[in-house]
Amino acid sequence: MKILIIGNMGYIGPAVVRELARQHPEAILHGYDNAYFAHCLTGVHYLPERHLEKQFFGDIREMPADMLEGYTAVIQLAAVSNDPMGSRFAAVTKEINQDATVSIARQAAKAGVKNFVFASSCSVYGVASGAPRREMDQVAPMTDYAKSKIGVEDAVSGINGDMVITNLRFATACGMSDRLRLDLVLNDFVACALSQGTITVLSDGSPWRPLIDVADMARAIDWAVQRRADDGGRILNINTGSNQRNHQVRDLAAAVAEAIPGTTVSINTDAAVDSRSYQVDFSLFAKLAPEYQPQMTLSDSIKGLIEGLKRMKFSDSEFRTSPLMRLHVLQAHIDSGHLSEALKWSNVTY
C-alpha cells in the first residue's frame, strides 16, 4: 500500500501519519504540503514527518498532473481550515478547499488510485435545530469554509470509474497535536483555564457541538483508505464521530473547569441565541466501521490537552493573538512579505 497524505503538516496530519505508520508498517507513506504551518511544532522535539518515506512541498493549486501516479490511496486534508480564515480569504478558500481538491480527485481517478479520502465537515449542516442530522438530511452551509466542503462533495459525486471516494464529515476537531491549534472550542477552553483561570463563554452556552479527537480522526481515515465499494457504496458521504460526543458548549466548559480545579466559568446569559448549533447522528459510521469507532472520551481529550500544554510550558493569557491561532500564522507570513494575499509563497529569500 502506497499512500499520499496531502496537507500532512497541519493540525490533523501528524496524528494521521502516526496512525497509518503504526497500523501499516509495510506501507509507503508520502506527504505533500505547502508548509504554511510546518514551523508550528508544539511540545515535541522531532518532526512528525520522520514516519514518512518522502515529504513533498508544493501548492495543491499547482500540483503536477503526474503527481498521483502509483498511489493506492490519496488523503486530502489540505484546506484553509476554519471560518475566520474562510472569511478573511474567501476567494482563496474556494480555490484551495474546493477547486483544487476536485481537480486532485479527478487526477487521482485517472491515475488509477483505488481510494480517495476527503476531510469534509459536519459544518455543512449549518443551522440545524431539531433531531440530530443524518447524511440524507438537507445541508445548509453558512460559511465559505462549509460551502467549500459541500462543493467538493457535490463535484466528486460525478467522478466515474472504480475509485472509492469517502467524504468524512468530521465532527469539530479537538485534542492535542504535534502542531496544536487553539482556534477550536475545546482547545480554547483548556488554554483559557490554564492561562487565565477562567473560561468565558460568549454565547449562552446552549449551542450543540459534536466533537472528535484528532486521534480518532486518524482512526477513521485509516478505515477510509481501505474501504471497499461494497461497504457503503463507491461514493460515500458519512458523518464521522460518535453520538456520545454531541455536547452543549456550557457542558464543555464545565468539564474543563472540573479537570482544572480553581477554574471559573463565565457564561453570557444575555447573549443572543447562537444559530451555529447542531447535533449529528453518527449511526451510519458506527454500522460501517465498528472496528474504527472513536475511543477518546471528552475527559481523555481534555487530559491530553492539559498534559500537552503543560509540556509546552504554556502560560500565554493572550494566546488568541499568538501563532497558536492559524489565522495569525498566515497573517504573519503576509506581513513579512513571504506570502501573498492569494496565499502563494513569494520568491523573496531572507
Layout of strands and helices, then pairs:
Layout: E1 2-6, H1 13-23, E2 28-33, E3 54-57, E4 73-76, H2 83-88, H3 90-111, E5 115-121, E6 128-133, H4 144-156, E7 164-170, E8 172-174, H5 185-196, E9 198-201, E10 208-213, H6 214-226, E11 235-240, E12 246-248, H7 249-259, E13 264-267, E14 278-280, H8 283-288, H9 298-311, H10 326-335
Parallel strand pairs: 1-2, 1-4, 2-3, 4-5, 5-7, 6-14, 7-11, 8-10, 9-13
Antiparallel strand pairs: 10-12
- The CATH C-level class name: Alpha Beta
Strands, total number: 14
Order of helices and strands: EHEEEHHEEHEEHEEHEEHEEHHH
SS element count, helices: 10
Radius of gyration: 19 Å
Q: How are the strands ordered across the major sheet?
A: 3-2-1-4-5-7-11
Major β-sheet profile:
7 strands, parallel
- Write the CATH homologous superfamily: NAD(P)-binding Rossmann-like Domain
Q: Could you tell me the strand content as a percent range?
A: 15-25%
Any idea what the shape is? globular
